[in-house]
Amino acid sequence: MLQDGKTEFGELVKLEDPEFEREFVVYSSNQIEARYILSPALMRRILDFKMRSQRTFHMSFAGSSVNIAIDMGTDLFEPRLFRTVLDPKIYESFWNDLSLLAGIVDELNLNARI
C-alpha cells in the first residue's frame, strides 16, 4: 500500500533488490540519482545494519547530507529527575548509544564520496 505512486517526497523508486524493497520504501525526485546513491553494496549494508541493530530507523539523502532517525526507545535528551548521574550504568548507556550512532557512519561507509 505504501509503495504506490507519487507523494510529497517524490516518486516511488523501484530497486533491483527485493529484500531491500520489503524492508524500505524509497522515494525520490530523481530516479537515476536514487539508484546511483543506493548501490547494491549500500543497500546490503543498510539491510545488514537493520538486522543487527534490531531498531526502526529512517534515512534521507538531501544534497550532500545523510539524515538518519533511529528509534532508541527512550528520550535521549531528557534526564531522569530524582536519579543520580553518578551511576556507572547511566554512563555505560550513554556510551553505548553514542557508539551506535558514531558507528553507523563507518558501518555503512557513509564517509565515502559518492
Binned, the helix content reads 40-55%
The radius of gyration over CA amounts to 17 Å
Query: How many structural domains can be distinguished in the coordinates?
Result: 1
Ranges with pLDDT <50 over ≥5 residues?
none
Report the sheet-strand fraction: 15-25%
Mean pLDDT: 80
Secondary structure tally, helices: 4
Count of distinct strands: 5
Strand order of the largest sheet: 1-2-3
Class from secondary-structure proportions: alpha+beta
Helix-strand topology string? EEHEHHEEH
Q: Which descriptor suits the 3D outline? A: elongated
How many strands, which pairing sense, and closed or not: the largest β-sheet? 3 strands, antiparallel
Q: What's the N-to-C terminus distance?
A: 31 Å
Key features of this structure:
alpha+beta, 114 residues, 4 helices, three-stranded antiparallel β-sheet, 41% helix
Explain the layout of strands and helices.
Elements: E1 6-7, E2 10-12, H1 18-23, E3 27-28, H2 31-37, H3 40-53, E4 57-62, E5 65-70, H4 88-107
Antiparallel strand pairs: 1-2, 2-3, 4-5
How would you sum up this structure, described in words?
- By secondary structure, this protein is of the alpha+beta class.
- It has one domain (6-107).
- 41% of the residues lie in helices and 17% in strands.
- The chain contains 4 helices and 5 strands, in the order ββαβααββα.
- The chain has helices at residues 18-23, 31-37, 40-53, 88-107; strands at 6-7, 10-12, 27-28, 57-62, 65-70.
- The protein has a 3-stranded antiparallel beta sheet with strand order 1-2-3, covered by helices on one side.
- A hairpin with a 2-residue loop joins β1 and β2 (10-12).
- It starts with 5 loop residues before the first strand and ends in a 7-residue tail after the last helix.
